[in-house]
C-alpha cells in the first residue's frame, strides 16, 4: 500500500456516481474530466500522462496508437460491460490490465430490451408523438394497432447474462423462446429456451433481441441476407452494439415494411445517427440507455473503482478481461 502523499494518479474520463470516486480517492489522487463530454483523443493522451490507471468510457478509444503512446499506465477500467473500445491485444502486450463491469448491469439492460420491445410493438413512442402534436381525436377501433407480445416467439441472439435475463422476462409474457449461441446454455434451456440456428431463429421469431458483444464474429452479423429471412410482422431490438447490424439494410427493410419495426438503443456511429431513421415511424430510438438507472450506474461506479484498486494492490480484479497480464511479470 502506498503511503499517503505518494498515491498514484488515476484519470476518470467523465463524471461518475460518487460511490466509486470515494473508493478511488482512498487509494489514488483522482483527476476527473468534469466537462459534460468525452475527451478528444488528443486530450485523452495528454491527461493519461503520469497516470497509473483510468476509469474509461465507451467514447474513449484505446486503440493501438493510444495504448502504444502510454508509459506507466497499468489499468484501463472500462465503465461498461462491453470493451470493444479497447484494443485488448495491444493492452495485454503492454502489460495493461483491462477490466469491465459485467453482471451489475444485466437486469437494467434486459429491462431496456423489453422497454424497447413493448414500445415498438405497442407503438408507445409513436403514440406519445401523436398526443403531443394534438392529434389524438379519441379512441377508435382501428387506431394505432400494434402487435401482441404474449404467446409470441422471441429469438434471442446471444446466451450470456443479458440474453438469459431477456429470456427470463420473456417467460413472464408466456413467450416461446428460441436462442442462438455458439455454446449451449443450460441457464437458457432451464427457462424453456430452445437452441436453434441463426437462420431458423430469424425465420421463426416475432421479436428478435440482439444480446451479443461486439467482436469480429458479430460485426455485421445481421445484414441484408439475415434481415431478408425475418417475418414481415417481426420486430428487431438492439441493445448490444450498433455495429452488429447493417443499418442501411435495416433502414431499407423498415422503409419497405419488410419487417414491422425496430427498437434501437445503440448505433453504428454513436452519437451520430443516420438521418433516415428519423423519418421512419416504425422505429423507436433510444440514446444508449441500457444501463442508465441510478442503482445500476452506482454499482458500475463501485465495480469500476474496485477493479482499478485491485490492480493497484496486485490482487485479481472482480472482472478482468485479460487476466494473463496479472501473471506475466
Ligand atoms: C454499455 O453499452 C456497456 O457495454 O456497458
Ligand atoms: C453481459 O453481462 C453478458 O454476458 O451478457
Layout: helices, strands, pairs:
Layout lengths: L8 E4 L5 H8 L3 E4 L8 H8 L4 E4 L7 H5 L6 E4 L9 H6 L3 E3 L6 H16 L2 H9 L20 E5 L3 H12 L3 E5 L5 H5 L3 E2 L2 H7 L2 E4 L13 H6 L5 E4 L8 H9 L5 E4 L10 H4 L4 E3 L8 H20 L16
Parallel strand pairs: 1-2, 1-3, 3-4, 4-5, 6-7, 6-9, 7-8, 9-10, 10-11, 11-12
Helix pairs in contact: 1-13, 5-7
Bound molecules: glyoxylic acid (2 copies).
The site of one glyoxylic acid has 8 residues, from helix 7.
What does this structure look like?
The protein is 35% helix and 14% strand. The chain starts with 8 loop residues before the first strand and ends in a 16-residue tail after the last helix. The chain is of the alpha/beta class and 329 residues long. The strands form two sheets. It has a seven-stranded parallel β-sheet, with helices on both faces. The model has no long low-confidence stretch (mean pLDDT 97). It has helices at 18-25, 41-48, 64-68, 88-93, 106-121, 124-132, 161-172, 186-190, 198-204, 224-229, 247-255, 275-278, 294-313; strands at residues 9-12, 29-32, 53-56, 75-78, 97-99, 153-157, 176-180, 194-195, 207-210, 235-238, 261-264, 283-285. It folds into two domains: 9-104 and 294-327, Rossmann fold (3-Layer(aba) Sandwich), CATH 3.40.50; 106-285, NAD(P)-binding Rossmann-like Domain (Rossmann fold). The site of one glyoxylic acid has 7 residues, from loops.
Amino acid at each position: 500500500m502506498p503511503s499517503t502523499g505518494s498515491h498514484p494518479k488515476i484519470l476518470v474520463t467523465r463524471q461518475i456516481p460518487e460511490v466509486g470516486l470515494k473508493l478511488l480517492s482512498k487509494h489514488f489522487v483522482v483527476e476527473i474530466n468534469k466537462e459534460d463530454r468525452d475527451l478528444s483523443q488528443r486530450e485523452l493522451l495528454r491527461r493519461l500522462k503520469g497516470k497509473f490507471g483510468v476509469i474509461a468510457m465507451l467514447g474513449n478509444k484505446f486503440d493501438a496508437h493510444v495504448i502504444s503512446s502510454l508509459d506507466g499506465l497499468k489499468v484501463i477500467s472500462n465503465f461498461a460491460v462491453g470493451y470493444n473500445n479497447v484494443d485488448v491485444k495491444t493492452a495485454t502486450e503492454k502489460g495493461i490490465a483491462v477490466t469491465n463491469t459485467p453482471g451489475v448491469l444485466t437486469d437494467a439492460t434486459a429491462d431496456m430490451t423489453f422497454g424497447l420491445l413493448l414500445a415498438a410493438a405497442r407503438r408507445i413512442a409513436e403514440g406519445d408523438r401523436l398526443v403531443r402534436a394534438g392529434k389524438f381525436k379519441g379512441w377508435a377501433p382501428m387506431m394505432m394497432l400494434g402487435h401482441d407480445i404474449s404467446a409470441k416467439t422471441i429469438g434471442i441472439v446471444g446466451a450470456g447474462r443479458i440474453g438469459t435475463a431477456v429470456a427470463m422476462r420473456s417467460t413472464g409474457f408466456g413467450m416461446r423462446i428460441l436462442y442462438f449461441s455458439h455454446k449451449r446454455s443450460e441457464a437458457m434451456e432451464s427457462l424453456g429456451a430452445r437452441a436453434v440456428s441463426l437462420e431458423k431463429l430469424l425465420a421463426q421469431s416475432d421479436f428478435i433481441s440482439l444480446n451479443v458483444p461486439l467482436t469480429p464474429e458479430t460485426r455485421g452479423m445481421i445484414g441484408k441476407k439475415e434481415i431478408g429471412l425475418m417475418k414481415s410482422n417481426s420486430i428487431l431490438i438492439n441493445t448490444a452494439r450498433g455495429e452488429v447490424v447493417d443499418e442501411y439494410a435495416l433502414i431499407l427493410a423498415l422503409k419497405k415494411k419488410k419487417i414491422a419495426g425496430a427498437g434501437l438503443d445503440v448505433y453504428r456511429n454513436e452519437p451520430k445517427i443516420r438521418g433516415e431513421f428519423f423519418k421512419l415511424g416504425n422505429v423507436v430510438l433510444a440514446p444508449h440507455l441500457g444501463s442508465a438507472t441510478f442503482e445500476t450506474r452506482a454499482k458500475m461506479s463501485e465495480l469500476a473503482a474496485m477493479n482499478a484498486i485491485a490492480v493497484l494492490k496486485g490482487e485479481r480484479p472482480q472482472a478482468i478481461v485479460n487476466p494473463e497480464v496479472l501473471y506475466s511479470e
